[in-house]
Structure formats: C-alpha cells, structure tokens
Amino acid sequence: MTSQRDLDMVHLRLILVSGKTQDFTFSPNDSATDIAKHVFDNWPAGWEEEQVSSPSILRLIFQGRFLHGNVTLGALKLPPGRTTVMHLVARETLPEPNSHGQRNREKTTESNCCLLF
C-alpha cells in the first residue's frame, strides 16, 4: 500500500550528458543544492566515468533552464507521485537568472532591417 508521504514525494529521473539515467526520490522542500549534494554523496554505480570532484559543480536543467541552488522542487510545481526528467551536468558557474530573457528583450527592441529602393 502506498502511503501519503510516498505520494507527496517527487520522483526525478536524472540524465547525464552521456545519456546514462538514474531515478531518485526527493521531498518537495529539497532545493537544487540539496539534490546535487545527495546525488554526489550517493553517486550511482555505472556513473563512475562521470564522477565529479565536488557537488558544487553539479547543475540541474529542467525544461531548458538551469535551476539555481535555492529553487525547491515544490516551487516548480512538479506533479507528486510522478517521475519528472531533469538533466544533470557539471558546470562551474551558472548564467545570471533571467539573463537569457534579458538578451531576448534587448534583441526585440533593435531593428536590423534595411530598405531597398
């Protein structure tokens, strides 16, 4: 029988650049930093070639965006009891939040057209 606690948990399938996957279960209160530390401390068998030197360089990507350290799974409104896929990559630094969106807004205000007569 499944308990309410199990239903409230968030199931993640993490995919490495190599294509290797592993399933993990977390609380909705866990942050991206918590997840990176947990994965680092419980590095799966079969991922030895991708082992990193520190949890601080592990980054999660969800729906094409890097998750910053303090973002919780609950804030992402992931469906509890279902498996959500995220990518796990090693990267020293992250782009600033919304920096990509800012560049896009700047581009929309520029005009690069010319008139030919």
Automatic annotation (TrEMBL):
Please name the Pfam families in this protein's record.
Rad60-SLD_2
- List the keywords (alphabetical): Cell membrane, Lipoprotein, Membrane, Methylation, Palmitate, Prenylation
Please list the residue ranges annotated as the Ubiquitin-like domain.
Answer: 10-88
Location within or outside the cell? Cell membrane
Chief site of localization: membrane
Gene Ontology cellular-component terms listed = plasma membrane
Q: Cell membrane: present as a keyword of the record?
A: yes
Q: Key word Transmembrane present in the record?
A: no
- What InterPro entries has UniProt attached to this entry? MUB, Ubiquitin-like_dom, Ubiquitin-like_domsf, UBL3-like, UBL3-like_ubiquitin_dom, UBL3_Ubl_met
PROSITE patterns cross-referenced by the UniProt entry: UBIQUITIN_2
Kindly give the membrane topology term recorded for this protein: Lipid-anchor
Q: What is this protein called?
A: Ubiquitin-like protein
**UniProt lineage:** Eukaryota, Metazoa, Chordata, Craniata, Vertebrata
